Amino acid sequence: NAGVTQTPKFRVLKTGQSMTLLCAQDMNHEYMYWYRQDPGMGLRLIHYSVGEGTTAKGEVPDGYNVSRLKKQNFLLGLESAAPSQTSVYFCASSYSSTGLTNTEAFFGQGTRLTVV
Amino acid sequence: SQKIEQNSEALNIQEGKTATLTCNYTNYSPAYLQWYRQDPGRGPVFLLLIRENEKEKRKERLKVTFDTTLKQSLFHITASQPADSATYLCALDLSGNTPLVFGKGTRLSVIA
After folding, report:
1. Which partner for B31 in A28, A48, A111, B95 could form a disulfide, CB atoms 3.0-4.6 Å apart?
2. pLDDT score at A102
């Protein structure tokens, strides 16, 4: 049982390049999230999805797009990378987010992205 | 404005003592509060969840309290060990399809 897997683990991009980060979960979770983590800023939500085919903006969505074509996958795209997007990106998933049961989030190992 | 604050960026404690971490929030009404542990270079890992109608929750050496009047949660590690050194994050579970809101974390160092 792999849990949440992020690809790639590390990447260096030049300003203006594009890339896609892939998140895959094998727990049949409905909810998936993309966070970025910067020193002194904590985890900030970029986009999230409450089910296959749905996406919603989080706290810091500008410069990113997402897609959830399959329940198990959540893709994060950077169309034109900027140095301000240098960060560690975490994907997470949870069974639900209704506050009833099983709302704890399972995180991937992170993707360290540097934009030069 | 809405805020979630963890009392300090870093906390140093002697091995064997009880570590107490604080999470305060403003202008939120969480139904639940969660605590996570994060080791360097790794993603956060869930530790405990406490509901708004629970005063206290325990799991082995961990204890969490939740005071909705004070808008505060305390996270205790008793008989702390160097292996407990990590960053601890609190997260508000607001329910209603709203994602978790995380604090910035407290970096705990347990010194032998």
Report:
1. B95
2. 55
pLDDT digits (tens, 9 = 90+) for B50-106: 988 898 999 999 999 999 999 999 999 999 999 999 999 999 988 767 788 999 999
Contacts of A41 in chain B (CB under 8 A): 104
For residue A92, the chain B residues in CB contact (below 8 A) are 43
Residue A51: other Cβ atoms inside 10 A: 13
Return the number of other C-beta atoms located less than 10 Å from residue B38's C-beta: 20
Q: Is the peptide bond before A83 cis (omega within 30 degrees of 0)?
A: no
The torsion angle over the Cα atoms of residues B44, B46, B48 and B50, rounded to 10 degrees, is 90
Bridge partners (DSSP) of residue B93 are B32
What does the pLDDT look like over A56-88, one tens digit per residue? 999 999 999 999 999 999 999 999 999 999 999
CA distance B74 to B53: 15
Instruction: Give me the amino acid identity at B66.
Output: F
Burial of B62 per CB tally in 10 Å (0-12, 13-18, 19+): middle
